[in-house]
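Notes to self after the Tuesday call (sharing in case useful).
The group wants a holo model before anyone commits to mutagenesis around the pocket. I volunteered. Ligand is magnesium ion. Logging inputs and output together so the record is complete.
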Amino acid sequence: MSACLDIHRLSAVLPNGQRVLRSVSLTVQPGEVRALVGESGAGKTMIGKAVLGVLPKSVRIVEGEMLIEGEDLGRLDAKARRTLIGARTALIPQDPLTALNPSRRIGPQMTDRLVRILGWSAERADQRIRQLLDEVHIRDPERVLKSYPHELSGGMRQRVLIAAAFAAEPRLIVADEPTTALDVTVQKQILRLIAQLQRDHGTAILFVTHDLGVVAKISQKVSVLYAGKVVEEAETAQLFAAPQHPYTRALIAATPRYTDPFASLRPVDESVLAGLAAEIAAADKGWRPSHG
Amino acid sequence: MDEARIARCGLSPRLWLAGGWLLLALLAAIFAPLIAPQDPLAQDLMLERLPPFWLDGAEPGYWLGTDSLGRDLLSRLIFGGRIAFIVAFAAATSACLLGSTLGLIAGYFGGWPDRIISRIVDVWMAFPPVLFAILLVAVLGTGLSSVILAIAIIDWTRFCRVIRAEAMGQSRMDYVENARIAGYGRVGIMLREVLPNVVPSIVALLSLEMGIAVIVEAILSFVNLSISTDDPTWGSIIAEGRLSIHQAWWVLVFPLITLILTVLSFSQFGEALKTRFDPVLR
Ligand SMILES: Nc1ncnc2c1ncn2[C@@H]1O[C@H](COP(=O)(O)OP(=O)(O)OP(=O)(O)O)[C@@H](O)[C@H]1O
Ligand SMILES: [Mg+2]
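Result:
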């Protein structure tokens, strides 16, 4: 059986030639949660956008393949690619406020996609949405469906977006820091909700985060990203038990623990960063895009 | 929240005053033949320069007095409103359709459509609008339809610029990106996700533009370039009033007040409507 998502040696550059992704390889097996962890600016969002086909115009892919369930996105024409991505993937975005259209009611925003893209009947779409709203523990679907986004709290909006993402039964969901914009108290609930729905629906998730605590809770596999390069990948338990790369060790050491709250204030060691810089420079030195 | 809402929308005095005046003026214009106390074209030299009703020498039935040819001022203002409103609606709607469509396309698609459209707008805006209007009417010939056409041709850029900027902001929003991921086509996204968010601005601009069209029509009438028949228009009444300002000030003052009230009402009404159409502000 082919992987749900298979990224192979993906490189992307900015117009000035700067590499933002450095031969990234990454797989997500069906039904599995793969965490993608790294500090701000590492290129986590770029990878997600590349998969979903919404890279900014200035970013150009110069090598590598991306396969969704064995189908090579690069070999499809634009229309077929859009259809494939639309049918098999979904996004749970970072900011639940800007991810919903402020001038449209929640109901039509949610059912629209099922009706127009997947060709479901309005009735079936409506039933489906209500079922999903129930699964994300929204008790008054009538009110929510009639509301405008600004009438709901941040946590509520994120629940709506989670329900919308799972509604069309995608094979792969990209979750880009889905809890960062929320209150700490709500973060836990939302995380638990995503884990719950993921298990119930058997959906594969590429889970972007910068928080190793979240990684430990939700994922089976982890890729650690630094400056657009995967520096380590492992089973989650393995990564925490025996981190191989010095950068991973530094990240784990910097994760807050109740027993040692000041640990979180410890910066990544200079020598580790110097090592990383050397590694990146070495990777860039002999690099030529293999095609394109 | 509910009380604040009522205070802001339901009882907004701005909306009621502006809307009230516009409704009154519009109804008067529509039913002019039934309402006007006199024939607006009937001249009577026995009745020339009658003052308004509260001054000595006023005649009953000539509430706002008469002009130097003895024509009833109120009746002329009421009939003049017909042309003002026809021009306002037709010209503003045409300018709005043209400008908003191009602005939406330029802002949402970006790239070369944007470059072409923005270029045209820049060139257009280099002409001073009133001169442009006079020139256009001189070329198109006078008459109602060429006045309407001239205003639309000049003022679509006002819509284009504002809507382009708003659509551009919208196109960067996450929900637009989400729609792309879901597989919507570009045109579908433009109409479904972007357009509803710029409607409040379109409505406000449309109303403002109606006021501007009224002014432009008045200016064109004032310089004798508008409607060639001797149908009264607010601009032509003002032009006549200017000549007899020392003998009969009312012939200048009343049409000016009417014009200013109407133009102000259009812009205030537009602002109020904008808040009503916007689900976040509402
Ligand atoms: N629209 C863009 N055009 C050009 N470069 C960009 C653009 N957006 C981001 N970048 C650059 O690409 C790199 C990767 O950015 P990305 O947003 O993927 O980081 P991230 O890992 O998601 O960080 P964060 O945790 O802050 O979300 C950064 O160096 C950033 O400056
Ligand atoms: Mg990011």
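Two things stood out.
The radius of gyration of chain B is 22 Å.
Residues 1-7 of chain B have pLDDT under 50 and may be disordered.
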